[in-house]
Design goal:
- With about 210 residues, the chain is an alpha+beta fold.
- It has two domains: about 70 residues, 2-Layer Sandwich (Dna Ligase, domain 1), CATH 3.30.1490.20; about 110 residues, 2-Layer Sandwich (D-amino Acid Aminotransferase, Chain A, domain 1), CATH 3.30.470.20.
């Protein structure tokens, strides 16, 4: 088994209609600064590569950076932190996606049941409630709509803290896109975490796709 980098994982999802954060891949601090200028506003800067499945645990993520100096310093630090075991790496510069509601979605494969689509609560809600629902693949639009209902978070899907209600059609389309992406050759598992609700729309902020090594 192997994994795709965050950048490649999100590109795969985007091909299937999943809305992902705006990202730019940079090979140097200068490229990172240029990428941040193009994206605009505060950005996240992360070390990115196919061997970096647990960036946060290693302190390889910088959030809310604004200004050339902050981005340059972060990029230099992250590139310097890479080890030989990390293989080829780059810096991923991403827009900061703000929202009070976080979900997780993905596809996992088990020997007993096969592939299943998952939708759950993310962020602090996941820690407090730990709720998730599953459907065996393939799934229909109706299946995805039922998953949203079965998650039992209707109050959280309405208007909240000045944010509009979650666009259920968009969330359904996201789930269908994740399920479709799992059908690509070699894909073994998908983890979208977090899936942040911004202005009612789900945006995949981080993703990991596991692929067969052959």
């Amino acid at each position: 088994m192997g994994v795709l980098s965050e950048f490649e994982s999100k590109r795969l999802l985007a091909r299937h209609g999943v809305v992902v954060s705006r990202d730019k891949l940079a090979r140097s601090a200068d490229e990172a600064v240029a990428a941040a200028s193009e994206i605009g506003g505060p950005v996240a800067v992360k070390l990115c590569g196919p061997s970096l499945a647990h960036k946060s645990e290693r302190g390889l993520v910088r959030l809310g950076l604004d200004g050339h100096d902050a981005v340059r310093l972060a990029a230099e630090d992250l590139l310097a932190a890479a080890t030989t075991d990390d293989g080829e790496v780059a810096v991923l510069v991403s827009e900061m996606v703000a929202g009070h509601r976080e979900l997780i979605a993905g596809v996992a494969v088990t020997e007993q049941f096969g592939a299943a689509l998952m939708l759950g609560l993310g962020g602090v809600l996941a820690e407090a409630i730990g709720e998730a629902v599953f459907r065996l693949l393939p799934v229909s639009e109706a299946d995805c709509e039922d998953m949203i209902d079965d998650l039992g978070i209707s109050p959280l899907l309405g208007s909240m803290r000045g944010e509009p209600a979650v666009d259920r059609d968009a969330l359904t389309a996201t789930l269908l896109g994740v399920a479709e992406a799992a059908g690509e050759d070699g894909v073994q598992a998908i983890d979208v975490n977090p899936l942040i609700i911004r202005d009612g729309q789900p945006v995949a902020v981080d993703a990991l796709v596991v692929v067969s090594s052959s």
